[in-house]
Write a structure and sequence with these properties.
The chain is an alpha/beta fold. Helices cover 43% and strands 11% of the residues. Strands 5-4-1-8 form a four-stranded parallel beta sheet. A two-stranded antiparallel ribbon has the order 2-3.
């Protein structure tokens, strides 16, 4: 493989040609969620809401610790929020232009983002979405358990939920296969979901995945292998501190190689 891309929130925020607006970065995310759905205004404790506004990861940690019964629905509602973003002008979208430049190249794209703009850009040009690794999961990774489990609140939270890149832990709400569906199908599936969230990480330190975590962990394993084998790594839209905390050892190892 010649090149591996790693995109963060900044990449989607400035991708262009997106409706209904550009996806926010972490700093503006909670405020955007409160405007999108009353759940975030009515259910999240005001003190925790303030923590979210100051630092989304800290807010998520407090939600898990103090209002864990709402975590699954929080992830479902957050997934619905990110599913609204779609490309309306391919000529103005930088992801589309990137895939055009990568025609006939040996590449892989990884992303920390929850939106589906990369998949949409790839599909518009006939590029396989297998080229895209969503390291924190995605709203369209629908656990098969979602169709069988409803009307339940899984509580308390697992003591040792499965964690993200290079992490450990065995806890999960549900385990099992995942259906990777298109954006419209994901919107339809989540419209009735209330007990099982997509295979998506909680936006907190450790990026815990509570439903079908093995699917996301497999993507992360593919990413680690790609870092070891790739010629170059291109990074865009990732905060430096987050980059080093999450990927520092992997990238330094790649550099030495």
């Amino acid at each position: 493989m010649q090149v591996l891309f790693l995109f963060g929130a900044g990449a989607s925020k400035y991708a262009g040609g997106v409706a209904p607006a550009s996806p926010p970065d972490g700093k503006g995310l909670f405020e955007a969620l409160t405007q999108h759905d009353s759940f975030f205004r009515d259910k999240v404790d005001p003190n925790i809401a303030q923590a979210f506004r100051e630092n989304f990861e800290k807010g998520m940690e407090e939600l898990v610790a103090k209002q864990g019964e709402y975590v699954t629905m929080f992830l479902i509602k957050m997934s619905q929020y990110f599913l609204q973003f779609h490309i309306v002008d391919c000529s103005e979208n930088l992801y589309v232009r990137l895939f055009e430049l990568l025609r006939n190249k040996d590449f892989m794209i990884s992303t920390l983002n929850y939106d589906m703009l990369l998949e949409e850009a790839a599909t518009s040009l006939g590029v396989s979405i297998r080229k895209i690794l969503k390291l924190h999961g995605s709203p369209n990774y629908i656990p098969e358990a979602m169709q069988f489990i409803s009307g339940l609140t899984i509580w308390p939270m697992p003591a040792e939920p499965t964690t993200s890149i290079g992490g450990s832990g065995t806890g999960a709400h549900t385990r099992g296969p995942v259906d990777v569906v298109d954006r419209k199908t994901a919107i339809a599936r989540l419209s009735t979901a209330d007990a099982v969230a997509p295979a998506i990480s909680a936006f907190a330190v450790g990026k815990k995945v509570y439903d079908s975590p093995d699917f996301v962990l497999n993507l992360q394993s593919i990413f680690r292998k790609a870092v070891d084998e790739v010629g170059s790594v291109v990074i865009a839209g990732v905060e430096l501190n987050r980059l080093m905390n999450t990927f520092g050892s992997l990238l330094l190892r790649q550099k030495r190689g």
